[in-house]
Amino acid sequence: MHTAVSLLAGAPAQLLPARSLMAFTLASHIVLVPFGVALPLITLIMHGHGLRRNDPTALLLARRWSAVMAVQFAIGVVTGTVLSFEFGLLWPGMMGRWGDVFGIGFGVEAWAFFLEAVLIAIYLYGWRRLPSRTHFLLALPLPAAALLGAFGILAANSWMNTPRGFSLDPAGHPVDVKIWKAIFTPMFGPEYWHFVVAMLVTAGYVTAGVYAAGWLRGRRDRYHRLGFTIPFTLAAVFTPVQLVLGDSIARQVFHQQPVKFAAMEIVWRTDTHVPEYLFGRMHPDGSISGGIKIPQLDSVLAGFRPDTRVTGLTSVPAADRPTATQATLIHWTFDIMVGIGSVLVLLALWYALVWLRRRRLPASPWFFRFAAVAGPASVVAVECGWITTEVGRQPWIVYQNMRVAEAVTSTRSSSLWIMFGLVVVVYLVVFGSFLAVLLKMRTRWRLADGTTGQGPPPAEGPERETPEEETPETDTPYGPRSAGSRP
User: Fold this and answer.
1) What pTM value is reported for the model?
2) Fewest beta carbons less than 10 Å away: which of 59, 256, 306, 329?
């Protein structure tokens, strides 16, 4: 900690509030990103299932999820726009010098947001207003638009980690920009696919977790079973894929950003037969306390051989590497991310074995307890992944080309702290309102389904003969509305 404080002592006063504000807004926004990227695909899978099997329960779930998707998208656009402004307000040094090189990524993201907003509006409006096949086909571009937004932001972030596609003039300014090389950097492929699959896994587990909690409360109807099965199956299928992709991106970091890799694995000196530490703390002199030491494993993981040479933090001057405190932080976040992913693989394996042997969901309450927790755990893993990526690049904002301290704004630090406080208050209101809307929607849907909360009531029967009490959610999402339905 002393090293971190001593380095900050020579940094601009604006650096700490600017980094704190950026970290807070990014950490808040990333909670919403899995739903923006993956919920459209999950919803359309449920929608397609309902159309193919003429299943009103599946169509009802898809319609409700589309409403959640729209509310989430609105909040995500707000928090994402704040981040876009913060790049210019907090880091004008980076945007002023490098904006022409990597700014294309932000442009792609903006167009993707616009396209996704239009498609979501059409999708919501189309329920009961368009023929079922037309409605579904018009929604098919939605997942592609969501992936396009991820493409833009990951192109910008991967460029910051491995900047390419430009030359420097004698004054150090980028010239001769090659857009394709700036977009498709060595880290782009590993980062993009690791990110996209993480979003699918997280959104799947969070969505399924809602119905797992209902299952534990005794709601064992088909509505909850189907609401759990489809998103959980999608997440379970991609969980082992994510483990492979995670190993791939760690290996790419080993080759492209060896100092970041050294911080992730708390390696002090360059050596072979390097041990792996599970957790543990690095001190400013390079010593490590605590944790579990596994001899030679880090070298094996990096290069498949114990004699693989792993670059240490001391391979570069202290001013060009993360501090011991930062290294400990990203080592812990990396280990937490890997640990959560490993447990999720076991959960997915449990699910697969029961399904393959008995063609049904696991009956154990413990399975559904773990499934309910899997959603929040996945969100934690996503947060840890971004901390590892961003803190591990320190002290560079553009790796080996511009330091964070060189990019920060000249605005007074007191003004930045005031801005930080205002943003925290605004975000508490925004996210509180988001939660209130979701809870109100849940209450309304449960009232529509009946007082027991056991899913939608039957489509026929004497209790359905009072159209004035009908709510939109109890209607079939296609076909004529009942006489008393509200639009």
Assistant:
1) 0.86
2) 306
